[in-house]
Each structure stands twice: as C-alpha cells, then as structure tokens.
Amino acid sequence: MANILLVEDDDGDAMLTEGRLKEADGKVDVWRAHDGADALAMLDNGDFTPDLILLDINMPGMDGHETLAKLRADARFSKTPIVILTTSSSRRDIKRAYESCANAYVMKPVTLDAFRDTVGTIKKFWTQTAFLPGAVVNG
Amino acid sequence: MAEGRVTGEHGPSDILRLTERFGRIGFWRVDVPNEVVYWSDEVFRIHDVDPEDGEPALADAINFYAPEVAPVVQAAVAASASTGEPFELEDARIISATGVERYVYSKGECRTDDDGNTVEIYGIFQDVTEQVLSQRNMAISKARLELVVQAGLGVWEYDVATRTILVSPELSKILGRETDTPISVSLDDFLGGIPEPDRIGVLEALAAQIDDDTPYLIEHRAIGAGGKTIWLRSRGIAERDSQGKAIRVAGSVEDITPIREATDAALEANSRFNLAVTGASVGVWEVALPSGDMYVSDRLKKIVGAPVLPSTQEGRFVWKLETFLSNIHPADQAAMRKAIDRHLKGRVPFKQEYRFKHTATQQYVHVLIRGQAEWDDKGEPIRMAGSLEDISQRVAHLEALRQSEQRFKLAAEGASVGIWDWLDVNRSEEYWSPNFYSLLGYDYRDLTPSIETFQSLLHPDDVEHTFAAVTAHFESDKPFKVEYRLRHKTEGYRWFLGTAQAAFDADGKPTRMVGSIQDIHERKTAEDKLRKANSDLDQFASVASHDLQEPLRKVAQFSALLERDYGDRLDGDGVLYLGFLMDGAQRMSRMVKDLLTYSRMGDAALNVNPVALENIMAEVIDDLSEVIRESGAEIILTPNAPDIPADPELLRRLLQNLVANGIKYNGSDTPRITVSAVQSTSAVHITVQDNGIGFDPKQADRIFEIFRRLHRREEYSGSGLGLAICKRIVEMHDGKIWAESEPGQGAVFHINLPIREPVVQASVA
Question: I need a surface site. Which of A75, B127, B221, B650 has the fewest CB within 10 A?
C-alpha cells in the first residue's frame, strides 16, 4: 500500500482528490492534513512514511510555500516526491514552488473528467518512479 | 435759446434719447446721501450691463474703472460731494462687465441743499475709446518714425491700399526739399523722381517684397537737391495682416552718392584717395597687390577697430590684407576670399555683407564692403580700393521689428494662452507674455523669465520628458507638443499643454524657440480620475471573477460525480434537476471567464499605429478557419483599404468577433461577410456587412450591452459578451461603433476610428 499525504484545507477538494486517487489505484492509503502545521505534526507522529505528498498552496496558517520549504529542509523528506496541486495560475507561485524544489506544479482542472485524468497521471507517474534507485519506498 | 424752434414737436425725453443714441453721450445721477446711482441706457451700454439688471451700487460703479483709475475717481467724487464743485474725468480707462477695455469722458455738477450739503451729483458720460486709440496709434507711428530717423536715415512708409508714400523730413531733405514734417506723395510722383532704368527696378523690387517677401534692398538713382543726380540705397520690409497680406512697407533710405563717387573717383584718379565721406558709418580702404599692404581711413578704423601699430607716414600701410581678412567671422571667411578671387580673376563686381570682429570690443560688426580693382596690361591686379560700412544698426532694428511682430501675432490669438519666447537657445533668458505670468498666478515682478526659472516651475517628474521633447524638436524637427505640470503661485501644480516652434539657421542649428502654454488642468484631472476609476473597476472585476471560479468548479465537479455515482437512483425529475444544475454551472463558468477577459482589456497598453487591414484580416480568417470551413462562409475584403489607426491585437479581436458573429447569426448556405474601410480627413471608417438573419433596428443600441442576447440560448450559443468587447475596444481608441439592420436582411456594423497625432503624456499615478 502506498501512502499519499494530502495537504488540503478545503473538504470538498479533499474528497474529490481522494476519490480520484482511489479510483486510479485501489492500493493507496490517503492521509489527510488540513494545513501545513497539521501535515508536519502528522509526519512527526510517525504513523506512516509518505511515498508522495500532494500540497495545496492557499491554506490558512502555514501555506503551501512555507510547508514545502520546511519539508525540503528536513533530511527525512528532502527527496520525497512533492506535487503542488492548486487553483492558482499565478506565475509567481509557479516560479516560487519550483525554486523551493517542488517536483511538479499541477493546476486543479475544472471538469470532473479532467480532474480524474490529472490525478491519475500523478499517481501513475510517482508509482513508476518508486522503482527508480534512490527513491524512498515503503511497503 | 428759443427751444421751441429747435425741438419742434419733440418732447424733452425724445431729445434726450436722440442725444444719447447719436451723440453716444450717456447721463447719470448720483443720489449722494443714499449713495445710489442712476444710469441712462447709453451708460449701461458702455458698461456692457443689461438695463434689466439695474444699476450697481456706487462703490461697484466706481470699480468698473481700471485699477489705476478707480482711486482717482473715488477721490474726485468725494471731493465734489464735499465741496460742491463740478468734476471732470478725461480719458479714464474702464473694464466693462464683459471684460472689454474702453475709455470714457465724464463730467458732473452738484446740486446742494439750503445748508450747502451736496444732495446730488449729475452729469454726462461718453465713450471716447476710438479717439484715444487713434491718438495713441498716431503717437506710436510717430515715435517709430522718430526712432529710425535718429539713426540718421531717411524713412518712408508705403501704404499698399492707397498707393501713397509717407516721406520723412530727412528723406525729403535728401531729395532736395527742406521741411520738418512728413510729406505724403503718390507712388507715381515718387517714382517720377527716379530716372529710368532704375525706376522699373524699384517697382519690381517693391512688388517682390509685397508678393513674395523677397528682401527689398536696392540701390538706385534719384533727383536730389539742385537737380543733381544722387545715388540712394533703399531697404524695406512689409507689415502684414493676419492673412499674410502686406498692408504697408516701411523702409529706410541712405544717400550713398559719396561712396559711389568715391569708388568711381578712385578708379578714375588711379591713385590713393582721401575723401571726406558723409555718414559716420562709412570707411574707405585701399590695398596694393600683390604685397597686401593696406591703407584704411580713420572712419574704417573706428568701425572695425584697427590695431594700433607703429605707422610709417600718416597711418599708411597700417595693416596687411591677411590680418584684415583674419578678423572676418569664421563662417564668412571662405565666401569673402572667394568673392575677392572672383573679382580679381573674373572681374565679378565685389560687394558683400560680412561680419567683422572689432579688434577692441571683440564683438562682431555687420559691415558692407564694396570694392574695385585695377589691372595692368598683362591682366595682373595691381591695386584694389573700396568702402566699408557699418550696417549693424539697421540689421538690429529690422530684427527687433520682426521679433515683436511675431510675438504680437501669437499674443493676439488667445487670452487663455501664455506666450514664451526663448530668444537665444544658447542663453537662458526668455520673454514671457503677461498671460504667461497670470496663468501661473504670478506678477511679472515675481519671476525672472529664463530657462532656469521655467525648470524650477516644472514638476520634477516632468522635467526629463519635457527637455527630451525639446531635444527631439531641435534634432529631428519633431513637433513640440508636451503636457507637463507647472507650479502655480497659490494652487500647487497645474497641468499645461506646451506647444512651440524653433527657428533654425542655415546650418540647421536652432537659434530661437517661440511657444505657448495652455491651462488644461481641469480636463487632465478629469481624464485621470476616469482612468483610475476604470482601473479600479477592472481590478475588482478581475479579482471577483477569479474568486468566483472556485465555487463554480465545485458545483460542476460534484454534480458530475452525483450523476455518475447516483444518477441511476434518480427518477425522471431528479435527472432533469441535475441537468439544470450542471447546465447552470457551466454557463456561469463561461460568463465568469468572459468577464475576466473583458475586465483584463483595460490593463493592456494601447499601441496605436497605422495597421494594414489585409494583414489583420488574414489573421482573423486563419483563426476562424475551422468555423469558416464548416459553414461554407465567404469573407471578402474590399481592396485599397487605408491603414487603420489602431492597436493591432485589439483590432484583430474586434474584427474576429464581428466576423464570427456574422457567420454564426446566419441561416444561409453561403454566409457572406464583407469588410471595407475608407478614410476621411480625421478618421477611418470600417464596415462589416453580413447576409445573416439581421435584428430589429430598435435593439441596435442594446446589442452592445454586456450579457445582452437577442436570441434564446437554444437557438444560438454565446455568452453575450462579444459585442460588449467590441464596443470596449472601439472606445479605448476614442472611436464609435454602431449597427444597422432589418430582420432577415443582414446587418452592417460601422466603426469610426479617429486619426490622431501622438502626444507625449504622463499620468497621475
């Protein structure tokens, strides 16, 4: 079972994303954090090691950029695949995310079908890279 | 007086009215104790006050007098009231209620009561403006005449309309008549005193100046005192009206007989000459060739300041020709040497105007040199002699005249315009008209007019682009038209429009710049407020529509999920409800996207240039290629279209929307869209015509409204923003768009785009 950490403040978006992830691959466990602080607390708790982190940007409290920076600064997660999944199309956000070493920046699509395709692609891509040397895999 | 005889049937009020109207004399009365003023109709007229409005209070009546006169009037009235003595005002200046300057004559008498107190002052009031002005004009003319006469010249003034010449006393004397007043003669009589063939020459030269502004400078013979033939040099310049038509030619005449005789005598005598020359401004010279040893008269030394060198005998051979020539202005040197050369080798008459540097004052003096050489039997020049005259005074006079004429012409063109004159672009000094000062709230004593002062009045943010425009005008003659802010004495910075034109010398270097400033503050601040309001609105629309996307996405996606996962559990109504839900969300999402596009249009910088219509239409056809293919549409562009003054990208969107509409709202098998453009003097007119379904002409204005649709969604898709976007684009270009149609007969869309000059603009942040 692959562990995916979903950091998303909006319950509706969380439900949509989780639903599509499970549709794309039944063998995933999706862990939901409500914002950056929540995510770091969950990781410190040590209940699981994430194979993939999906990170929203616009969250109250600690936003996606701050969370990303903190994760990359932490030796445990400096190589974990992190995908930014957000509504923001701002060039500044994109630039900043890549500069903070996000692996991918994906904008949430409008229609359900497109959303499903996007999430499916993310899942597929990262599970494949799990077999590459150097990747952190668990379970 | 036997009044009855004179007045006959007319009553006193008739007489009064006639006197007023024909004699332009008004009557007034002041009730002294109550300080009330009564005016007759003529007095009202002189003040430009409507009799219906009634007389002003006494204090206000006095304030019609110009500021320098009002206190005097006040004092006179007060004195009269206390002494009972009459008072008189001559040539008093008033400013009427409509701002017209007039001159008046007023005389009043007092009526006292038994105790000797003045109860009433009454009298007449007359408009004497015409008399005052004509006296003044005569005084100006006379003064001008006298000024020029002082330079020791004879002066004449030729009146084009009457074909008469006014001859100054000095000129009369030259022509052999002793007098001390100017004399008027007809042109024919004047010419009678000029022998042929010189007469034709004078007439031709005069005509050339009047018609083509060809400089009038001619030497001719005339009959002088005792019937003797004399030589005159005559210069003149035309005074023109505002249409450029010559009304007068003013000129000066000098008796150059001695000079002509001198050169002739030198030639005849074949020796050095020592003439008593009349006229303080003429010197004489002779140079031996090829040695270059030069003799100059005392007068010439005075004109050009010959160096003090040890002279041999009586000042002979004071100078070498080379030294003399080296004092010529560098720009004139080459021409001088060439003229000497051509005379010595080709015997071309030697007569030139040059600038010489005075060896003492180091200033350049305008001089006229004439000369004649002698050759030996082998044709070698052995000697040359001639005259040198100082003509700087005359040059300066004519130039001053021209300068003040130019300024006056500009000033006459508007009171809300201030004139400035940068007299010499190499120096800082300027001339500013009274209006210039008052537009800035200053008195002429407050500021020294100069480039420095101007710069200190300019808003710091405008300094760079203003002076850049000056440089551009100097270097590439780009029209100088700039908006900038100047610091008003009491009202802070105000916006002005500055326009100007520089004058250039023969080398294309700027010498002088004359221009105007116009207060555009109200217009500019209104424009800027509008621009800011629009920008705020745009920002709001942009942010709002972005934030609206998010909940819309939710509705769209979850209703899709609902349908997918629970659709089979819904009955017919449930499925319908869901359908409406999803449809509504989709439409809303579409509208929000269009709104975002519409609101972002205001951000785009407008880049207006002449654009080739063929190129834009090619892009439009390319972008719509699929739609065109599917509909079988024909897009026609009429040939020889003028260039369109527009931003290329915005023009493309505009035409694309209109063409796409033309195809969409079209029932025929071959939709046909015709685009054409014509140019008028100030604008370009584009039409887009289709053979589609047309629309009710009553809706012609509403179709441009945001989200306005004339058809049901089921029939024709579309957000209802296309034409609103077109209208916005056209308005951003300060143009107009409108449509004509009848149902079933297609539609024509008209677009008018103004052609305009770019203006260098800065805007309020």
Answer: A75
